[in-house]
Amino acid sequence: MKTDYLIVGSGLSALVFGALMAKAGKKVQMLEAHEHPGGFGHSFTMAKKYTFNAQLHYVWDCGEGDTVDRVLKKLQLDQEVTFDRYDPNGFDHMRMPNYAIDIPSDNTELVKRLVTLFPQDSHQIQQFVAEIQKVRAGLRYLSPPVQPLELLRHIGEVCCAIQYLNSTLQDVFDKFKIPQAAQTLLALQWPDFLLPPAQLSFYAWLILFSGYQAGAFYPTKHFEQVIDALVQIITDNHGQVLLNHEVTDFLLVDTTVTGVQAIDLLTNESQQYMADTVICNIDPKKAAGMIGLEKFSRTVQKKLDYDYSPSNFMAYCVVQGINLKDYGFGKWNTFHTGDQDLNVAFDRMYTDQDYSNPSFAITTPSLLTTYGGDCPTDCQIIEFLTVANYGYFKTLKHCDPKAYRQKKEEILESILDVVEREYIPNLREHLVFKISGSPTTNEDFCNCPEGNSYGSSLTPKNMGIDRLNHQTSLNNFYFCNASSGYPGFAPTFWTGALLYQRLSGDLILA
Ligand SMILES: Cc1cc2nc3c(=O)[nH]c(=O)nc-3n(C[C@H](O)[C@H](O)[C@H](O)COP(=O)(O)OP(=O)(O)OC[C@H]3O[C@@H](n4cnc5c(N)ncnc54)[C@H](O)[C@@H]3O)c2cc1C
């Protein structure tokens, strides 16, 4: 049986694309290797009572008229899938020795807070914040679908943005002579990229920083409900989402992709699935390896030559008998570093495997919505995130499973030491559940090569004009995932919606 759109993988961009196509009356079939849909956005339940989202913490672009809102309205899900806003007066709490700042939505307030901390550098800070506003405006006009008239009308901002095409965040800090401690406070959300300022694309930092300033959100009924709602749209509109189905090969006639070979992991039966169009949500480089890189045009081969984003360590914990609100947690994230220089802190963890003075993110999903349901009412969920090296963990797990478990334990203990010292005394006494994930956990449960966190690494090289897009150069075959669009909840909504718009002609994005 042939479908209109056969989608390989059920990550967010795939679900958005599939739901929009199914709603538009197209026949959609989705094949997902994992037992849960959603890719990095999937949720899992432990001890039958604690539900964690695998990776997502907070999201942007969910306000009225923004990308996520437009998609949900088109799917008539906007009343069902709603979002609670983080505290606009401080959505990210940055903490380091001798300095602390809560990042507000308002730029004037941001400058005021920074200047209070660094009065001697007032001029540079003001110039820097003015520049990021100008570059952000320019990037909006450069973002597809490009409207040439708008681009010309705002040529000043556009030119200002283009000059930073190859810049890292560090380059821009250096250009504006931002003092070291202020740099660290501004870049302390580095776990959102898993790159330090010296490697991170300035564009990537700016888009996320300003996106969260415009509104940081958490889904009222948790991420699981968002994923379930998208799956439901597909199945309600005569589509199928087949879980535990791993695609093992792509079927081609010359340069036309006609379907895939997939194995049902529960029965071990292998079957062919045919379609008019095949959408690839799995890592494009991995898919190209399955198809044969030589089948792609030279231009696409060049775009496929990206390096992967570093991987991560996540700890999913539950506390009982305390209220995290009493310890400075609330509708915000907390980012901590013990080291003033994030480039040094990152290298120490990622390259030297030294977590004795860690930098990490703390999130408290149970405090972000009053909906509950993620754990019993006398408990709260708290999660920790930092960088981890795939090669190191892969080798450990393969050669010495005991040492692998010990390293995971060591990282969590080191983080808990800091949290007990700086934030929640005696935290360990209240921990009733903890489990951690390493780069190989990402690989096993999200099927991402090298345990990568954000697809292609968010460096200037990968964020530049050679960035991969939906085009594959093969017929009836399109890429649709973080590496062929942009990583993150809202950016993958945008990626899926933009491909839908391109293939259907139905304009739903601005
Ligand atoms: C630690 C971490 C924290 C994050 N935090 C945030 C956050 O706070 N906010 C935010 O906006 N974003 C966050 N992200 C990023 C966001 O989760 C991802 O960018 C996004 O979910 C990726 O979606 P995707 O469409 O690219 O698909 P993916 O999530 O990559 O899904 C691909 C799917 O394809 C499936 N698949 C792979 N191979 C096969 C095969 N052969 N056959 C069948 N199926 C296959 C996989 O199992 C998977 O389900 C975070 C990511 C990480 C790792």
Write up what this structure looks like.
The protein is of the alpha/beta class. The chain is 38% helix and 21% strand. A hairpin with a 5-residue loop joins strand 11 (256-264) and strand 12 (270-280). The radius of gyration is 22 Å and the shape is globular. It binds flavin-adenine dinucleotide. The site of flavin-adenine dinucleotide (FAD) has 37 residues, from helix 1, strand 10, strand 13 and helix 19.
Topology diagram in text:
Layout: E1 2-8, H1 12-23, E2 28-31, E3 43-46, E4 50-53, H2 67-74, E5 83-85, E6 92-96, E7 99-103, H3 107-117, H4 122-142, H5 148-153, H6 155-162, H7 169-175, H8 180-186, H9 202-214, E8 217-219, H10 222-236, E9 240-242, E10 245-253, E11 256-264, E12 270-280, H11 284-291, H12 298-303, E13 311-320, E14 333-336, H13 342-350, E15 360-363, E16 379-388, H14 390-399, H15 401-422, H16 427-430, E17 431-437, H17 439-446, H18 460-463, E18 477-479, H19 489-504
Parallel strand pairs: 1-2, 1-12, 2-9, 6-14, 12-18
Antiparallel strand pairs: 3-4, 5-8, 6-7, 10-11, 11-12, 13-16, 13-17, 14-15, 15-16
Helix pairs in contact: 1-10, 1-19, 3-4, 4-6, 4-9, 14-15
This protein binds flavin-adenine dinucleotide (FAD).
Flavin-adenine dinucleotide binds at residues 8-14, 31-34, 39-41, 55-59, 246-247, 281-282, 312, 314, 385, 446-448, 453-454, 481-482, 487-489, 492.
